Amino acid sequence: MTDFPAVSREWHLVARPQGWPTAADFALREVPVTAPGPGRILVRNLHMSVDPYMRGRMNDVKSYIPPFALDRPMDGGAVGEVVASAAEGFEVGDHVLHGLGWREYADVDAQHATKVDADLAPLSAYLGVLGMPGLTAYAGLFETASFKEGDSVFVSGAAGAVGSLVGQFAKIKGASRVIGSAGSDDKVKQLTGKYGFDAAFNYKNGPVAEQLSEAAPEGIDVYFDNVGGDHLEAAIGALKLHGRATLCGAIAQYNDTAPAPGPRNLVAVIGKRLRLQGILVSDHAGLQQQFVQDVAGWLRSGELKADETVVHGIENGTEAFLGMLRGENTGKMIVSFTR
Fold first, then answer.
1. Which of 39, 155, 239, 250 is least surrounded, with the fewest CB atoms within 10 Å of its CB?
2. pLDDT tens, 250-266?
């Protein structure tokens, strides 16, 4: 007797977006559900992640990760419950993290599933603070940017899943000053209130370079870039001698239909001997154990606050994704299939 339905719903990309994605670029379709074959597990997804990098995968261009195929299910981080198993080491009822989101039921190669403990943290946390965004923030700050105690740090997109953690990690580890930018006055208040940033500004209220100069009159040592564009240009201007920048995202440019101009002050990189380095979280798997140990401890002690913006129902998956691109989330944007 099976404990899963005959059909499942999943989101397909049906057209390559030109500029901002629209609802017409996606379709929610029904597909049959079958028992897993040898070495595989069937997972009922409980929560799925929507992330900025997914926008790039909607373009048919060569990149570090293959593009989404048209008329096929999209994928991404998800956590769920095993409902059928043909793989050693996995039992019905286990909770697992895997990469086949955007669908209600996932037929997963057990080698690509990781058991997670619902007693250690809420399951959705494994998509955020204890998952890919958390490790991105941790590795990007401590390894890529070579953060050290006493550094002054600027974070763009600071109210998002990664940025909100970067700023808090820096404060916990002894930053002299942490500044964040966000897209609303309410988010600015949350940065300086709940998250403990020393200063923050709404980038819509005036030129980024001017607001950053006011918030960090003595300059910055580290910049964590989630936005690109005018934020990167402003940070280059504010970075001190031998400053470091982690280039994590460029959400301001993801939906551009023409190449965006580069920072006009790149020559300053030479004179200041700056280091600008990109990050892909997949390069930092060796930090996983230390990351979980540190972050779980900070969560338990209350030093670290991790927020989620939750949208319920797979039918609202693409709207959650578009909302994330519009900056409607505070912390990690999650699509939950539970009520």
1. 39
2. 887 777 767 777 799 99
Name the residue ranges covered by the structural domains of the chain: 7-127+307-336, 132-282
Q: In the CATH scheme, what is the homologous superfamily, with its name and number, of domain 7-127+307-336?
A: Medium-chain alcohol dehydrogenases, catalytic domain (3.90.180.10)
Whole-number Å distance between alpha carbons of 256 and 325 = 13
Q: How far apart are CA 78 and CA 268, in angstroms?
A: 42
Q: Where are the alpha helices (DSSP H) in the chain?
A: 53-56, 132-139, 163-172, 185-192, 208-215, 229-238, 267-272, 288-301, 317-325
Mean pLDDT for 202-207 is 97
Which two tokens mark 233? Answer: 């240009």
Residue 21 main-chain phi, psi, to 5 deg: -65, 155
Range list of β-strands (E), 158-202: 177-182, 199-202
- Asked if 115 and 91 count as a contact pair (C-beta separation under 8 A), the reply is no
